[in-house]
UniProtKB/TrEMBL annotation:
<comment type="pathway">
    <text>Lipid metabolism.</text>
</comment>
<dbReference type="InterPro" id="IPR052388">
    <property type="entry name" value="Peroxisomal_t2-enoyl-CoA_red"/>
</dbReference>
<keyword id="KW-0597">Phosphoprotein</keyword>
<dbReference type="GO" id="GO:0019166">
    <property type="term" value="F:trans-2-enoyl-CoA reductase (NADPH) activity"/>
</dbReference>
<feature type="region of interest" description="Disordered">
    <location>
        <begin position="278"/>
        <end position="297"/>
    </location>
</feature>
<keyword id="KW-0443">Lipid metabolism</keyword>
<dbReference type="InterPro" id="IPR036291">
    <property type="entry name" value="NAD(P)-bd_dom_sf"/>
</dbReference>
<keyword id="KW-0276">Fatty acid metabolism</keyword>
<comment type="function">
    <text>Participates in chain elongation of fatty acids. Catalyzes the reduction of trans-2-enoyl-CoAs of varying chain lengths from 6:1 to 16:1, having maximum activity with 10:1 CoA. Has no 2,4-dienoyl-CoA reductase activity.</text>
</comment>
<keyword id="KW-0560">Oxidoreductase</keyword>
<comment type="subunit">
    <text>Interacts with PEX5, probably required to target it into peroxisomes.</text>
</comment>
<keyword id="KW-0576">Peroxisome</keyword>
<dbReference type="GO" id="GO:0006633">
    <property type="term" value="P:fatty acid biosynthetic process"/>
</dbReference>
<keyword id="KW-0275">Fatty acid biosynthesis</keyword>
<dbReference type="InterPro" id="IPR002347">
    <property type="entry name" value="SDR_fam"/>
</dbReference>
<keyword id="KW-0444">Lipid biosynthesis</keyword>
<keyword id="KW-0521">NADP</keyword>
């Protein structure tokens, strides 16, 4: 009997020969995305302002057998954006993927927000994303195509306390739709958004007093969505915004509210821990001894506790610490 194998797109070398720039790739969601992409064969360039964080992440990836390079970049500077993309194309001959992940904001009631404060956050998140998209298009993708994923922030129902970021992220989502239409004809460029809800990342160090009141997402859960949209598995998907929020933005309480169906004590949604989890039980290889403990989360105490609980859930327990998963 002859067998015809099914030709699935999900293979270990999914991103072989691809060169992908991840902004903010030294920490949090960006770092996890860089790990995922490198483990699937991509050459990953991670870029941000603080070079030490980038070097640590690149070293982690190289120790695991991946290809990763670092570049200093402030996404708010359009000149630097062009220089970084040009340098990548000069060295590798291409830039097939771009993940606009760098971003952030501060919390402030709208009534207290100054025009400068509003502009700073719009400049970082909206202008920064535009700067990189434009540089990628002008330098390489306009002629050769490519795939772009913009990491935004759940802003479906507004973001109380973060007016500036909500406006900027909504701008990114709309810009993404326009670019999908305008740039699709340029060799099939695809561009999409991932909108994380509350995720357990190192980024939460800037929100130290936050006490988790909902089932938070993991870095890996955001990264996995980015990887899917970048990949040929999403070859007919462009111009979309993919929320990664456990449906919290659909509830009345929302991501930023109090108790929801998705609270950490009762949630039955099994978390994906990704590469962090894969480090478990791997043993202390000689070459990784003394290296940063990549499985540790650099976040405020309540978040670390929650993360530890999720790890238990993945290993057969439940998010609330008892019994097995009902999934
Ligand atoms: C119901 C309770 C719910 C609680 C839920 C809380 C948790 C929500 C979590 C949401 C999930 C999101 C997570 C993340 O995004 S992770 C990423 C984490 N990292 C960051 O967010 C840091 C990003 N910040 C920055 O990069 C910079 O601070 C920023 C770009 C925002 C500003 O940098 P810049 O250098 O431009 O700033 P300047 O010092 O030049 O100031 C410019 C104006 O902005 C005002 N400003 C700046 N920082 C603050 C601040 N912390 N508070 C108030 N105002 C601020 C500053 O005063 C300047 O304005 P003026 O000239 O008018 O003074
Ligand atoms: N954690 C969460 O709950 C959520 C996060 N997000 C968004 O996801 C993205 C990743 O965040 P997360 O991983 O959580 O947090 P991190 O703080 O770990 O990541 C933010 C990254 O952006 C980089 N960055 C910030 N400003 C600039 C700049 N001007 N130029 C270049 N790089 C910059 C930072 O590096 P450096 O300082 O070295 O430049 C850092 O690596 C952000 O856009 C964030 O707003 C969205 C929803 C929820």
């Amino acid at each position: 009997m002859s067998m015809i194998g099914y030709n699935s797109v999900f293979k270990k070398d999914l991103f072989k020969d691809q060169v992908i720039l991840v902004t903010g790739g030294g920490t949090g969601i960006g770092r996890c995305t860089a790990h995922e992409l490198a483990s699937l064969g991509a050459t990953v360039i991670i870029a941000a302002r603080k070079i030490d964080q980038l070097i640590n992440t690149a070293r982690e990836i190289e120790l695991l057998g991946g290809k990763c390079e670092t570049m200093a970049l402030n996404i708010r500077d359009p000149k630097q954006a062009v220089e970084v993309v040009q340098a990548i194309v000069a060295k590798h001959g291409k830039l097939t993927g771009l993940v606009n992940n760098a971003g952030g904001q501060f919390r402030s009631p709208a009534s207290k927000l100054s025009p400068n404060g509003f502009a700073a956050v719009v400049n970082l998140n909206l202008m920064g994303t535009f700067n990189l998209c434009k540089a990628a298009f002008d330098t390489y993708m306009g002629e050769h195509g490519g795939s772009i994923v913009n990491v935004t922030l759940d802003c479906r129902n507004g973001i109380p306390g973060m007016l500036h970021s909500g406006a900027a992220r909504a701008g990114v989502i709309n810009m993404t739709k326009t670019l999908a239409i305008e740039w699709g004809p340029f060799n099939g460029i695809r561009i999409n958004c991932v909108s994380p809800g509350m995720m357990m990342t190192s980024g939460l160090k800037t929100y130290p007093e936050h006490n988790p009141s909902s089932r938070m997402g993991t870095e890996s859960e955001a990264a996995a969505a980015v990887v899917f949209l970048l990949s040929p598995a999403a070859s007919y998907i462009t111009g979309i915004n993919l929320p990664v929020d456990g449906a919290s933005s659909l509830t009345c309480a929302g991501t930023y509210g109090t108790e929801t169906l998705f609270n950490p004590k009762t949630s039955l949604m099994k978390p994906y821990i990704g590469w962090l989890q894969q480090q478990e039980g791997g043993g202390e290889e000689e070459e990784t001894k003394g290296q940063p403990a990549v499985k540790e989360l650099d976040a405020p105490e309540p978040i670390i506790h929650l993360y530890e609980r999720y790890k238990g859930f993945v290993n057969g327990g439940s998010a609330n610490g008892g019994g097995g998963s009902k999934l």
